């Protein structure tokens, strides 16, 4: 991944459609993004990291799928320079709980960014 990474965070009512998840998986591959989904219940949470253009295109793909209560809680923006660069491969990873999602954000050094965007702090 390029030295300058961008990311975005989306919140929805829920993510349950396997057809939509498959579409998001293809989009992550197409735009060379790493995407993390909290699926199966409410709230649905999506995190995307990649190039500026890749993240914007992935977010546009999500918008086109018309998820209920779609909220772009953190618009595509540059990852802060002091954030540790994680070496994720492009693709989509699903998690089952908000706790697992928070742990994944903490592992990437962006837990406080995520908490603020989600309205938890």
Question: Could you characterize what this model shows?
Answer:
- The model has no long low-confidence stretch (mean pLDDT 91).
- This protein has one domain: 2-Layer Sandwich (Alpha-Beta Plaits).
- A 5-stranded mixed sheet has the order 4-1-3-2-5, with helices on both faces.
- The protein contains 4 helices and 5 strands, in the order βαββαββαα.
- The protein is an alpha+beta fold and 121 residues long.
- A hairpin with a 5-residue loop joins β2 (34-38) and β3 (44-50).
- 34% of the residues are buried.
- α1 runs antiparallel to α2 (52-64) and α3 crosses α4 (111-118).
- It has helices at 18-30, 52-64, 98-107, 111-118; strands spanning 6-12, 34-38, 44-50, 71-78, 91-95.
- InterPro entries: RWDD2A-B_C (IPR059181).
Brief digest:
The protein has 121 residues and is α+β, with helices and mostly antiparallel strands.
- Which whole number gives the mean pLDDT? 91
Number of strands: 5
Q: Output the helix-strand order.
A: EHEEHEEHH
| CATH class wording | Alpha Beta
Strand content: 25-35%
Which term fits the overall shape?
Answer: globular
Gap from first CA to last CA = 30 Å
Write the layout of secondary structure elements.
Blueprint: E1 6-12, H1 18-30, E2 34-38, E3 44-50, H2 52-64, E4 71-78, E5 91-95, H3 98-107, H4 111-118
Parallel strand pairs: 2-5
Antiparallel strand pairs: 1-3, 1-4, 2-3
Helix pairs in contact: 1-2, 3-4
């Amino acid at each position: 991944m390029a030295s300058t990474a961008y990311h975005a965070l989306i919140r929805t009512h829920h993510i349950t459609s396997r057809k939509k998840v498959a579409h998001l998986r293809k989009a992550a591959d197409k735009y060379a993004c790493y995407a993390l989904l909290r699926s199966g219940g409410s709230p649905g949470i999506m995190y995307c990291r990649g190039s500026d253009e890749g993240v914007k295109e992935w977010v546009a793909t999500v918008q086109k799928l018309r998820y209920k209560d779609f909220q772009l809680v953190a618009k595509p923006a540059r990852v802060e320079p002091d954030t540790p660069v994680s070496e994720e491969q492009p693709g989509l990873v699903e998690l089952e709980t908000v706790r697992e999602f928070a742990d994944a954000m903490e592992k990437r050094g962006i837990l406080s960014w995520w908490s603020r965007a989600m309205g938890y702090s």
